């Protein structure tokens, strides 16, 4: 005989208490969650709404998404065209594609100097698809910064600047770009990482105090801003060091330096740097002991250029610079960046320690000699803003086509009896080249007309002279897509 045991009152009470506790936690959690989603008026907010930088998103699970979503309207895609430059691989005159942004309403667009180098026509695209041609560009190759300006000035939402001096190693950062590609109108990009180091940059930027991230350089478009989790610009990703083995990560011009350089580029068209004529190195504890220094702060002079302001002021090799114009030199490489901002032609005091004794010398900085500047020289230059000439027909596009036959059909064409015309060549700088038309593409449709042979090109129904351009359906090995060719909008 099987005997079943009824649950005791004590057991039933134990499980009842557990169930009540679980319910209480669920109810309290629900109330807590709703409390977090209420605004100042007590109304529930949409949990998917955009949270601003003051809503405490820095540690939230949607922080990356919200920072990127907030920044995208302020970031433009940039295409550069060099009509006189030879094209490569049949890609036409496009030098490069990258990103840009503004840091104050009505200001120019900040981007990479290398991106616009050699270009005489620069086109930007806003997040809504509107395009503009830049009227001028001012560049500073020493920091790989450039500012594009427009006439009239554009009204683009500005990104707030962070104080990069408070940015520390280990801080989370996002590189947010928007780069036009041959296959998409825009390509919004976000890469996350941390600040991995800071200090003097490679090559020409060795005079500056730069940041470095663990975000690989080739995953970010040139000119993309680097944002902290409050949506503020910490710096701009640059091409500095991209050709060296200094790092696999990205080099970043910090926001404080970015602000100083970009303001001079916008206001003066160039960066005016002062010149002392010395080379220095840091002072470590062993050097400080050898020289009898009280601390290891300062810049140790290891070379004085002849006929330079430093030589005229009797600065010698082995001197340790302590202050320049009243500003303390905390690290060896900081002397060069401090010297950049000195007034040119004005006597400034330089405090040094020589043979264990302090003394003050007066130096009159000069402008940086032309021989020490990069080539071509930095500064502002005008860009081509001439609208494309009106089109009267297909022949004005700058593309040469031939019939699509079994002999000329590319190997990637899988569908039998494919109709269209094959593009044989594209003239660099032509409307077709700027629109992304490339050799070996197949034109399937122009405007409202299907194209089956070169003879059809003279009878297609399209508004060639319209400002909006002509819609063209083309195909390559990646598939079919529409392009807009010509037009001045």
Overview of this structure, please?
The protein has 489 residues and is an alpha+beta fold. It has three domains: 198 residues, Thrombin, subunit H, CATH 2.40.10.120; 94 residues, Pdz3 Domain (Roll); 92 residues, Pdz3 Domain. It is 16% helix and 31% strand. The chain contains eight helices and 28 strands. Strands 8-9-10-13-12-11 form a six-stranded antiparallel barrel. A hairpin with a 4-residue loop joins strand 6 and strand 7. The chain starts with 8 loop residues before the first helix and ends with a strand. The relative contact order is 0.10. The N terminus is likely disordered.
Helix-strand blueprint:
Layout (H helix, E strand, L loop, with lengths): L8 H28 L26 H9 L3 E7 L12 E8 L7 E4 H4 L4 E5 L5 E3 L2 E5 L4 E5 L22 E7 L9 E13 L8 E8 L8 E3 L5 E6 L10 E6 H14 L5 E2 L2 E5 L2 H7 L7 E6 L4 H4 L7 E5 L2 E2 L5 H7 L7 E7 L2 E7 L2 E2 L11 E4 L16 E5 L17 E6 L4 H5 L6 E5 L2 E2 L19 E7 L2 E7 L4
Antiparallel strand pairs: 1-2, 1-4, 3-7, 4-5, 6-7, 6-22, 8-9, 8-11, 9-10, 10-13, 11-12, 12-13, 14-21, 15-16, 16-17, 17-18, 17-19, 19-20, 23-24, 24-25, 25-26, 25-27, 27-28
In short:
The protein is an alpha+beta fold and about 500 residues long. Helix content is about 15%, strand content about 30%. The protein has eight helices and 28 strands.
């Amino acid at each position: 005989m099987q005997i079943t045991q009824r649950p005791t009152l004590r057991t039933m009470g134990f499980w009842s208490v557990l169930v009540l506790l679980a319910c209480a936690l669920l109810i309290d959690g629900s109330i807590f969650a709703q409390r977090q989603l209420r605004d100042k008026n007590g109304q529930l907010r949409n949990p998917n709404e955009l949270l601003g930088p003051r809503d405490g998103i820095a540690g939230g699970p949607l922080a990356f998404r919200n920072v990127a979503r907030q920044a995208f309207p302020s970031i433009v895609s940039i295409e550069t065209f060099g009509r006189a430059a030879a094209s490569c691989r049949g890609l036409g005159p496009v030098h490069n594609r990258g990103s840009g942004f503004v840091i104050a309403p009505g200001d120019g667009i900040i981007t990479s100097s290398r991106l616009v180098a050699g270009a005489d026509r620069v086109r930007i695209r806003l997040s809504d698809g509107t395009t503009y041609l830049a009227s001028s560009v001012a560049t500073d190759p020493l920091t790989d910064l450039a500012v594009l300006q427009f006439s009239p000035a554009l009204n683009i939402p500005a990104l707030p600047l962070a104080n990069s001096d408070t940015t520390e190693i280990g801080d989370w950062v996002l590189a947010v770009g928007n780069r036009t590609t041959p296959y998409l109108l825009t390509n919004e990009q976000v890469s996350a990482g941390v600040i991995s180091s800071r200090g003097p940059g490679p090559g020409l930027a060795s005079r500056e105090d730069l940041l470095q991230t663990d975000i690989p350089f080739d995953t970010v478009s040139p000119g993309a801003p680097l944002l902290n989790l409050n949506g503020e610009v910490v710096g701009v990703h640059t091409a500095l060091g991209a050709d060296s083995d200094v790092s696999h990560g990205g080099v970043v011009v910090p926001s404080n330096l970015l602000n100083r350089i970009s303001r001079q580029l916008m206001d003066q068209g160039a960066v005016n740097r002062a010149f002392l004529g010395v080379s220095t190195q840091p002072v470590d504890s062993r050097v400080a002991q050898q020289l009898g220094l009280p601390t290891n702060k300062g810049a140790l002079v290891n070379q004085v250029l002849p006929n330079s302001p430093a030589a005229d002021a009797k600065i010698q090799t082995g001197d340790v610079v302590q202050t320049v114009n009243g500003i303390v030199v905390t690290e060896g490489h900081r002397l060069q960046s401090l010297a950049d901002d000195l007034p040119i032609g004005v006597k400034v005091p330089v405090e040094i320690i020589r043979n264990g004794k302090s003394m003050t010398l007066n130096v009159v900085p000069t402008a940086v000699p032309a021989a020490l500047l990069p080539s071509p020289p930095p500064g502002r230059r005008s860009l081509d803003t001439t609208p494309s000439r009106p089109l009267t027909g297909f022949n004005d596009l700058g593309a040469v086509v031939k019939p699509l036959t079994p002999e000329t059909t590319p190997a990637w064409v899988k569908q039998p009896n494919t109709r269209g015309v094959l593009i044989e060549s594209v003239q660099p700088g032509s409307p077709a080249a700027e629109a992304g038309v490339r050799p070996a593409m197949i034109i399937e449709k122009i405007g409202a007309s299907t194209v089956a042979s070169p003879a059809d090109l003279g009878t297609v129904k399209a508004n060639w002279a319209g400002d909006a351009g002509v819609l063209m359906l083309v195909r390559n090995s990646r598939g079919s897509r529409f392009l807009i060719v010509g037009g001045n909008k």
